[in-house]
Specification:
This protein is α+β, with helices and mostly antiparallel strands. It has one domain: Alpha-Beta Plaits (2-Layer Sandwich). Helix content is about 30%, strand content about 30%. The chain has 3 helices and 4 strands. Strands 2-3-1-4 form a 4-stranded antiparallel beta sheet. It is globular. It starts with 5 loop residues before the first strand and ends in a 9-residue tail after the last strand.
C-alpha cells in the first residue's frame, strides 16, 4: 500500500461579529503550524459569497502529524480562542494526496 500525504479540509462558519478576531487567530495558528516538520501546507480560504465561511486546508506529511499538531501550544491557543467565535461546530474531511506528488511539496 502506498502511503500518501494526508490533506484535511476543516470547514468553519464564524459569527459575523467575530470575523477579524477569527482571522487574526487563525493566521497566527497557520504561521506557527508551518514551522512543524509534519506540516507541508496550511491554507486559509474564505468563501466569496459568504465571508463567514472558511476552509482550512492542512497538508500533513505523515499519518502521525495531525496528532502531533494537536499537542502544540499554538493549536491549543487557537482552539480555545476561536471556539466561542464559531456559529456552528467545525467539521473536517480527510483526503489522500494525489497530485502534485508528495515529494513535490
Amino acid at each position: 500500500m502506498v502511503r500518501r500525504m494526508l490533506v484535511v479540509h476543516v470547514h468553519v462558519r464564524v459569527k459575523p461579529e467575530c470575523l477579524e478576531a477569527f482571522l487574526a487567530a487563525t493566521v497566527a495558528n497557520a504561521r506557527a503550524s508551518l514551522q512543524e516538520p509534519g506540516i507541508a501546507r496550511f491554507d486559509i480560504v474564505q468563501q466569496q459569497d459568504d465571508p463567514c465561511r472558511f476552509v482550512l486546508v492542512e497538508a500533513y506529511r505523515t499519518a502521525d502529524a495531525p496528532a502531533a499538531h494537536k499537542t502544540t501550544t499554538h493549536y491549543a491557543i487557537w482552539r480555545d480562542s476561536v471556539a466561542p467565535m464559531m456559529a456552528e461546530p467545525r467539521s473536517s474531511v480527510k483526503y489522500d494526496n494525489i497530485h502534485p506528488g508528495d515529494t513535490d511539496w
